[in-house]
Amino acid sequence: MLTISQVTKSFGPDVLFEEVSLQVNRGDRLGLIGANGSGKSTLLSLILGRDEPDRGTIQLQKNARVGFLPQENAPVGEETVLQLATLRDLSSLDHLQSETSSGVVETDFERDVKAKRVLSGLAFRVKDFDRPAKEFSGGWIMRAHLARLLVDEPDLLLLDEPTNHLDLETVVWLQKYLQTYSGALLLISHDRAFLNDLVTRIVELDRQRLFHYPGNYDDFLIQKEARRVQHLAAYKNQQRRIDQLQTFIDRFGAKNTKAAQAQSKRKEIERMERIDAPEKESASIHFRFPQPTRSGARVITLAHVSHAYGETKVYTDLNLEIERGQRTVLVGPNGAGKSTLLKLLAGVLPVQAGQRELGYNVELGYFSQHRVEMFDLSRSVLAEASDVSQPVPEQLVRSQLGAFLFSGDDVFKPVSVLSGGEKSRLALAKLLLDPPNFLVMDEPTTHLDMRSIEALIFALTQFAGTLVFVSHDVHFIRSIATSVLNVRPGEVRFYPGGYEYFVEKTAADSDQVSNSSSEGPEERPQPSTRSQEKERKRLEAEARQQRSQKERELREKLEKIEKRILELEERQQQLVVALQESNGSTSEESLELKSVADELGMLMPEWERLVEETKAPVVAANQ
Length: 623
What we know:
Shape: globular
Strand order of the largest sheet: 5-6-7-3-8-9
Radius of gyration: 30 Å
CATH architecture of the largest domain: 3-Layer(aba) Sandwich
CATH superfamily of the largest domain: P-loop containing nucleotide triphosphate hydrolases
Number of helices: 19
Helix content: 40-55%
Distance between the termini: 19 Å
CATH topology of the largest domain: Rossmann fold
Mean pLDDT: 81
CATH class of the largest domain: Alpha Beta
Number of domains: 5
């Protein structure tokens, strides 16, 4: 489907890749990996035709449709969320129209239903569907664009860090959805678990070349290490042989009796196909957290805590204790209150009601998902790293920055010119220069490449203090967490075990709507008489009429139930506001609020059932 042949691309004197080749066939599942700045996104740009190679060719099969999700900043106009998710790829309109007569293209109704199913999987609520997409944050706009691609089902889907804007539950949903995706996948990701569960081939962009490894990411690590060991052994053996030959030449080359032998050995060296010296591994972060002072057994307590944003209540009468030595991950859907709870624990948000109490000798450090906004961008890296509560000698600061890959003149760069990954490394380095015994971290792996993530995992497993964190990286969570807090709207439940323990305990509730379907083999038409042909056409017409009638009925049911859900959600919001203004003293409104919640609880499964009922016709239309 896609052929990249001997492609070279440079920006000025910097060569990103040289004479690289890649073949992508239908059904392929490829993971494109490499260090930050190695040229992965540039390669996608060349495939999309947005940039031209210096040399080489890129060929895409005729009529093949390509869909692309960038890391960020996808455009949005005046469309609603649902309209954005149902937009067709206009560049492939002729291709689509050529297939209309064969019944390949979905009806608008089928596409609408499919879009709603995908949007729900990506954590949009029913009431969000008709809201203008531009009202949402950048992360949610990216989700809507991802929904559009999944609904459109291009032949080749290019995804650049698709999990960056997703919570853990949505990452798991997307992973399952893509496992049955009908087209080819080429994705860039630093999420090791995501790659392991999806790809069947790893393509590594390293030192200006592409290296191909069959299997998933774990397979890649094993093969790469074996290849490195083999290369190193072959190089050492050849160098040993060259040294032996050269020693003989140097010693006996001037003697007449040994001149012929020396000349023979000189020619042997010249004829050798030299094995390149193994290049040094790219620099990576190596550090350990300085072991902190010991805190009391009870690190922090939240007692009867309530918190709201305006009229929206997030927590009411929350009670929580964190004990020394726990490494606890907060999981739950976006909007459930994970970041709010993290900020309450860190003291970034004041407690509106109830009490927050730190334990004996607790020193708290907070690593925010948006910590980069707290930097003084006009400062140098060195000056910003040195700005901690306790004075630190410059030599120690520079040593710490070196561990985070800021060496030489890099420490004098202004913070404003740093990439997202560099800012994340600077934030970690600064945190370690003022080490706490209670760490609160929000998405610490964002913008870190895989090697940096592995180094951070190593450091955190050696950390003797207490850790509470949020992450959507399953591999990171599995490696670090010793307990789980499952955050749901208005409630928090503690699981005294790692991520696998949590998954096992909640398996019954974690089933997601999949995109799989099973159909029998297509029957081969048999020769028929004129009367049989006439009867066949009559039956087909009746079947079409029945399908059309069923579609109308489903559409009416969906519209009716969606209307009622929107009415109930609006009334629920009004009742919450009324109760807040009356301090919850109106029993009549409390009873009505419970009634509304109960009806919503009954309607949502019914809505999901109706959406699921339409799935078979939608899939059939895409075969």
